[in-house]
Amino acid sequence: MIVHEWSSDVDGPHHEGVRFGAHWTPQLHSARDSYLRLFAQSGVGADNARAVADECRAAIDTHAPEIAAEFAGIAEGSGLPLTDVHLLTARTEILARMTPSMECSTVVYVPDDATPPRTLQTWDWHETLSNETVVRRLRSASGARVVTFCEFGQPAKIGVNDRGVGVHFNILHHRSDGSQAGVPVHVLARMILDRASTLAEAVALARSVPLAASSVLTVVAFDGETPSAAAVEVSPAGVAVLPAPRGQTLAHTNHFLDAELAAGEYSPYETTSIPRYRCLTDAADLAAIVDDRERALAFGAIPDAPISVRARADQPEHLRWETKLTVALDVAAGAISFAAASPADVAHAAWRRVSVRDASTASSR
C-alpha cells in the first residue's frame, strides 16, 4: 500500500477541498470505481449506494457544514459528482446495510504519571481496495491543526490534533445499522479532531449527532499533566463510553464491550474479533512500551498473532481482508507514526512520523 502525504494551510474548507480534489483526481476517481465494485459484490447496486450517500449528505449539511463545504470543493476540483464524494465518505454506512466488514485492532495504555497515553492500532481492510491512501495535514475551520490517516474521499480516520486529542477507529456492527439516516462515522472522527480539546468534548460530540452505522472511536487525550482515554462505542441505537483507568490498558477490536449495545451485536459470518482482542489483552504490558516503533515491533513479535491479518485466497474477493497499516498516536507532540505493514512486518518496513506542524517526514527501519 502507498501512503501519500498532503499538507495544507489554506483558509476556508471549500478552497482546501478544491486544491485537494484537483491534486488527487486520479486517486479519487479510482476510489469511487473500486467502491462501486465492492458495493456490487456485496449486493448493493450503485443507485442504492448513492441514495444512502445522499441521506448522509443531508446529515452532514446540518451537523458539519464546514465539512460539507470541503466535500463540495473536492467535487469541484476532481470533477466527481458531489454524491460520489459523499459515497466515498459513507462507505461504512452503505456496507452496513448489506455486508458488514471487519477491520482493526486497537490498544491504549494510560500511564499513572504525567505522560501521554501510548497507543497502537492496525488498520485491516479489503486486500484489493484502498491501496493508495493519504496522511493529511490541515488546519480545520475551528483553527485546530490536524494530521489524519484516511482513504481518499474520507475527511478523517485515525489522527491527532494540536489540542491534545487523538482518535483511533474500529468498525462495529449492530442490528440498528441502517435504521436511520445519519452523519457518517468518518465525518464524526473528523468533527472530533477539528473541534475537541478534551475527552469530554469528544464524547459530547459523539452524543450530539444521529448515526447510521456503528463504530468505536477510541479517544485519547493529554493536557500536559493528565492522560485519559475511552472507547466511545457509537451506533444508531445509542452511545456507550468505556473509560480506561490510569495505569491500565484498554483494547478494542470489532465487537461491542458495552453489555447493552452488545445485546444488539450483528455479524453474519465467522469473525476473528475475539481472538484479536484476547491477543491484545494477554499482551497488555507491551502497550506500555514508550517508543512507538518498539511497541509495534513487540506486538509483531508475538508468535502467530491474529492481529497481523493475512488475506485468505480461499475467500471471495470482497471477503479478503489484510492488515494494511500499523499506526501509533502521540497526542503530546501532535503526531502520528506508522508503517504500511502489519505488526509482524514492521521490522522490514519504513516507520514514518508526520506532525501537525512539521511538513517533513522522518523515516527509520
Mind explaining what this structure looks like?
Strands 1-4-5-6-7-8-9-10 form an eight-stranded mixed β-sheet, covered by helices on one side. It is an alpha+beta fold and 365 residues long. The chain is built from eleven helices and 15 strands. The chain has helices at residues 13-23, 25-41, 46-63, 65-78, 82-89, 91-96, 185-195, 199-208, 259-262, 273-282, 292-300, and strands at residues 2-7, 105-110, 118-126, 132-139, 145-151, 158-161, 165-171, 215-222, 227-235, 238-243, 248-252, 321-330, 335-339, 351-355, 362-364. α4 (65-78) crosses α5 and α7 (185-195) packs antiparallel against α8. The chain is globular.
Number of helices: 11
Counting DSSP E segments of at least 2 residues, the number of strands comes to 15
Relative strand content: 25-35%
Q: Any low-confidence stretches, pLDDT <50, length ≥5?
A: none
The level of helicity is: 25-40%
> What average pLDDT do the residues reach?
93
Report the biggest beta sheet as strand number plus sense, adding barrel if it closes. 8 strands, mixed
Oligomer type: single chain
> Taking Cα atoms only, what radius of gyration do you get, to the nearest Å?
18 Å
Strands in their spatial order, largest beta sheet: 1-4-5-6-7-8-9-10
Q: State the shape.
A: globular
Distance between the termini: 17 Å
Following the backbone from N to C, one meets helices and strands in this order, namely EHHHHHHEEEEEEHHEEEEHHHEEEE
Query: What structural class is derived from the secondary structure elements?
Result: alpha+beta
